Amino acid sequence: MGVNSGIQWTDDTLNAIVGCSWRSPACDNCYARYDVNRMARNPRLEEQLDGLVDGSSGELKWTGRVQFFPERLDAVLRVHRGRRYFTNSLSDLFHENLDEDVIQKHFKTFREAHQHTFQILTKRSQRLRELSPNIDWPCNVWMGVTVEDVRRLDRIPDLAATQARIKWVSFEPWLSDPATPLCEAVPNLRNRLEGIDWAVIGGESSKTKYGARPMLFEDVRYLIGECRAAGAKVFLKQLGTLWAIASGTNDAMGDDGKPVKKAKSGGEPSLWPAEFQSPSLREFPDVRVMESFAASEAIDNSVGPDKASKSDPPDGCPAPDQSAADSDHSDLSCSPSVHKPAAAKDMTHPAPTSRPTTHKSKSRSQRRWNRQRKNTYWIFEE
Ligand code: SF4
């Protein structure tokens, strides 16, 4: 589980843009519109989030308006401990109503904040493909597309055509066609996954009992096998709400007498069938991210954005941190071709959970931490 996020494959969320519109069937159970609607009731955010969602028809819908909050983007420059940020979980960075300037500002910030990794997902793969040549792709960006069914497989070539260093596909929510298993609909799926570094697989979650759609185990096995055959690492996130209900694990209680986290969406691996209980199904791309930078005790926590930019490597990519405590992460190459094999320890992603400990920086760090925590209303917790 992430430091500040309930999403298993990230540490935190960064929402500098808010607002969206329906794009494809994966959006049917979009949680973000409910989150935004709830946040808009906060008097401090009411004005900023006004008009992004509309419930006048009895159903909560996006209006298509997208709001940019530049201060939220700048804030990551002041977080010095490296994190994986799921970027824009309340919108789509390639939304048609977003100016290219705003998109470019995101990538400029990603490059400057090279201590972090930014995980981006889009369902607007065509716009991603169109804008890709204009983007100076930093290596700390993992660019992904959502593919929820067979028809949406055509987003993968759009992603493959970009210059992103790490490319990934989110097969979540995977919406199975019960009449036609994926292996029959798309034989040799592996051929369409060439160049993909990482695949997240997950069944649909829904807060309503009948709102979620099924994900066949047959499809899960096929996706795992084909992704691996194509050289992609696999992260099986959850088996979905329908499976959790059917298996009776949705109300599982832990030893502490509290409900098991993620049980309702089938996201707790210890509750899964034995065939899926493997650390190798919770892997990350083979890339040296800046975890060593974060783990290093030698880091100067007083460094601000201006100072930090002076240490930028020439091409904006993370430079090897020779003082890293964890030497296994000291090779910070971003080229998939020179990656080391991912180890099972990736399941316990070593992103920092504690505040800086040096006496000198403690009070400043404490204040910074408190500021971040005050902004928790921006953080989506699934
Ligand atoms: S693209 Fe994402 S945020 Fe936008 S409507 Fe679809 S699920 Fe919701």
Structure description:
The protein has helices at 32-39, 46-49, 70-75, 100-112, 125-131, 155-160, 182-185, 217-229, 241-247, 291-295, 305-310, 359-374, and strands at residues 12-14, 17-18, 53-54, 61-62, 67-68, 84-87, 117-122, 141-146, 166-171, 198-202, 233-238. With 382 residues, the chain is α/β, with parallel strands linked by helices. It has a domain at 12-16 and 68-281: pyruvate-formate lyase- activating enzyme. It has a 7-stranded parallel β-sheet with strand order 1-6-7-8-9-10-11. Bound molecules: iron/sulfur cluster (SF4). Iron/sulfur cluster is lined by residues 20, 22-23, 26-27, 30, 32, 62, 91-92, 123.
Question: Features of this protein?
Answer:
7-stranded parallel sheet, pyruvate-formate lyase- activating enzyme, alpha/beta, binds iron/sulfur cluster, 382 residues
Quick summary:
This protein is α/β, with parallel strands linked by helices.
What is the overall shape?
globular
Fraction of residues in helix: 10-25%
Order of helices and strands: EEHHEEEHEHEHEHEHEHEHHHH
Q: Specify the biggest β-sheet.
A: 7 strands, parallel
CATH topology of the domain at 12-16 and 68-281: pyruvate-formate lyase- activating enzyme
Small-molecule binders here are: iron/sulfur cluster
Low-pLDDT stretches: 289-314, 316-362, 369-382
Widest beta sheet: strand line-up: 1-6-7-8-9-10-11
Instruction: Give the N-terminus to C-terminus distance in angstroms.
Output: 11 Å
Number of alpha- plus pi-helical segments: 12
- Oligomeric state as shown: single chain
Strand-residue proportion: 5-15%
What is the name of the CATH class of the domain at 12-16 and 68-281? Answer: Alpha Beta
Mean pLDDT: 80
CATH architecture of the domain at 12-16 and 68-281: Alpha-Beta Horseshoe
User: How many strands appear in the DSSP assignment?
Assistant: 11
